[in-house]
């Protein structure tokens, strides 16, 4: 890394544990906090990129925290992992090659692996420590790494896509919030790289922040990438331990229309899921009026 890429050394995840409770206070959600009761700290350290904390909570199972922000709790992770994976995969008639950027905990891989028609899964995670400690402490998510179709690349996703043009049917970006190393993942040049790395008819699905908190981030990004993607949509899921209990997804297509309706319905697969189903797929794109107006200028 260059000096400009060196991580800040100020944050210490252990400082956020006070009187046996972990307190998440993020700059992207001012005036509110999320607290979880800690039973045991399983790991704390600093990777090349960020502060990494793993603890066992009293009621939410094992919790992964990066730079002070909750990424995964065993209690509710499935609502996020299933939706970010199955929304784009079920919207594609025949996804064979899938790229995951980020998602080092392995949960997205776990969900993609449930699609028997997928032939290749590649994951690009820039922080190898996230993979390492997820395998150690979150085996229920990291089980995705055991699939023989998976190739792991510990590297920058932008660099990987530059070397792999017109290659993927679906690209899923499971990123942390746009602070620190994940900041570039919320900018138009990154979406252009994904577009170039998609096959014709391909679909991208990215973590799209919270409609209650981040419309000022979502709206300009959607407007900008609509200049080169043929369709851009915003869907969302509910998840109690993310800020305001909601997280969105930006889905965009290359020479394909709307993804609001699934191209495939697989009731057998749905039996193995806890959140996603074909009916919820369509409902996830129905936004409250304030969000629809703010994101799409009431189109």
Verbal overview:
- With 299 residues, the protein is α/β, with parallel strands linked by helices.
- The chain has two domains: 3-73, Roll (Spermidine Synthase, Chain: A, domain 2), CATH 2.30.140; 77-296, Vaccinia Virus protein VP39 (Rossmann fold, 3-Layer(aba) Sandwich).
- It is built from ten helices and 13 strands.
- It has helices at residues 77-91, 107-112, 128-137, 139-142, 157-162, 188-197, 215-225, 267-270, 278-283, 289-296, and strands at residues 17-18, 21-24, 34-46, 51-57, 62-66, 69-73, 97-102, 120-124, 150-153, 168-174, 198-207, 231-238, 246-253.
- A hairpin with a 4-residue loop joins strand 3 and strand 4 (51-57).
- The longest helix has 15 residues, at 77-91.
- It holds the Pfam family Spermine_synt_N.
- InterPro entries: PABS, PABS_CS, SAM-dependent_MTases_sf, Spermi_synthase, Spermidine_synt_N, Spermidine_synt_N_sf.
Summed up:
InterPro entries: PABS, PABS_CS, SAM-dependent_MTases_sf, Spermi_synthase, Spermidine_synt_N, Spermidine_synt_N_sf. This is PABS domain-containing protein. This protein has about 300 residues and is of the alpha/beta class.
């Amino acid at each position: 890394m260059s000096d400009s890429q060196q991580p800040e050394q100020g944050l210490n995840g252990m400082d956020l544990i006070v009187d046996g409770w972990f307190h998440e206070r993020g700059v992207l959600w001012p005036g509110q906090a999320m607290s979880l009761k800690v039973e045991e700290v399983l790991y704390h350290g600093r990777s090349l990129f960020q502060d990494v904390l793993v603890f066992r909570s009293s009621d939410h199972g094992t919790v992964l925290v990066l730079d002070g922000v909750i990424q995964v709790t065993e209690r509710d992770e499935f609502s996020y992992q299933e939706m970010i994976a199955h929304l784009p995969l079920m919207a594609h008639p025949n996804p064979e090659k899938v790229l995951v950027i980020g998602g080092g905990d392995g949960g997205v891989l776990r969900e993609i692996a449930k699609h028997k028609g997928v032939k290749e899964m590649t994951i690009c995670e820039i922080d190898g420590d996230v993979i390492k400690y997820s395998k150690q402490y979150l085996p229920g998510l990291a089980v995705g790494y055991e699939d023989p179709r998976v190739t792991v690349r510990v590297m920058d996703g932008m660099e990987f896509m530059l070397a792999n043009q017109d290659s993927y049917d679906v690209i899923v970006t499971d990123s942390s919030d746009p602070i620190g190393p994940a900041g570039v993942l919320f900018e138009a040049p990154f979406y252009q790289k994904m577009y170039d790395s998609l096959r014709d008819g391909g679909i991208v699905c990215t973590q799209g922040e919270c409609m209650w908190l981040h419309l000022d981030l979502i709206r300009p990004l959607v407007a900008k990438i609509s200049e080169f993607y043929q369709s851009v949509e915003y869907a969302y899921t509910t998840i109690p331990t993310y800020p305001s209990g909601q997280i969105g997804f930006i889905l965009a297509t290359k020479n394909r229309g709307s993804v609001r309706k699934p191209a495939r319905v697989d009731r057998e697969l749905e039996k193995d899921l806890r959140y996603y189903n074909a009916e919820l797929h369509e409902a996830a794109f129905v936004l409250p009026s304030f969000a629809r107006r703010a994101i799409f200028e009431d189109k």
